[in-house]
Amino acid sequence: MRALVTGGTGRVGSAIAARLEAAGWSVLAAGRADGNISRPAEARALVARAVSDLGGLDLLVNGAAEGFAPKSALELTGADWDLAFGATAKGSFFVTQAAAPHLRESGGTVVMIEDVAAYQPWPSFAAHCAAKAAQAMLTRVFARALAPEVRVCGVAPGPVAVEPEQAERRAAETLLGRVGSPGDVAEAVVFLVGAGFVTGTSLVVDGGRLLQSGQHERA
User: Taking all residues of the chain, what is their mean pLDDT, rounded to a whole number?
Assistant: First the structure.
């Protein structure tokens, strides 16, 4: 079993890579140093490296993202939009596009690491919300485009990589009254990899954060 995890050096991505390795997977955990995946040629090069190093590809986890920083929607610049859509939307698209032939050959799976921001309007994170919404749509687009050989699913985390000083406030935003962890996202990925009759949908891992949308706005 062979997996490529983009964003694999961040908190969530490294937890996913470690969980897969614990389950017996061979993993290439790629970070910024492994190329700018918003550029098609570099996305193809990363996939080619993964296939060469691992001997094939059974799973792609699109976990790379940029541009998550609060800024008024009225002050966003073109550079802010380019950053937000770069690795998150364009990277997810071009890496999946490059990996598709290899995943079809192996009957593999794609998991998009989305965000509850894809499903909620956060004015202070407008570009991030839009980029994550685009990525969530790619989950559904690629599920149709790559069926029946390849399943494509999403995981939409809520507060799972929270700074200690924000934990109490973020916990209050959830129904469960606590924050999650990167390991919760990793477990969701492992579940979806084994859920052979699931495709084109997203698993929300947020402690009920989405259901609290009327009471809190992320800032």
Answer: 93
**Strand arrangement, sheet containing 59-62:** 26-30, 2-6, 59-62, 109-113, 151-157, 202-205
How does pLDDT run across 141-166, given as a tens digit for each residue?
999 999 999 999 999 999 888 888 78
Give 40-73 pLDDT, tens digit per residue: 999 999 999 999 999 999 999 999 998 888 899 9
Enclosing domain of residue 101: 2-165+182-206
In a domain, 172, yes or no: no
Which pair of structure tokens corresponds to residue 168?
A: 């109490």
Both structure tokens of 18: 């470690």
Domain harbouring 188, CATH code: 3.40.50.720
Do 43 and 95 meet the contact criterion of CB atoms below 8 Å apart? yes
User: Using alpha carbons only, what angle is made at residue 44 by residues 41 and 46, rounded to the nearest 5 degrees?
Assistant: 110
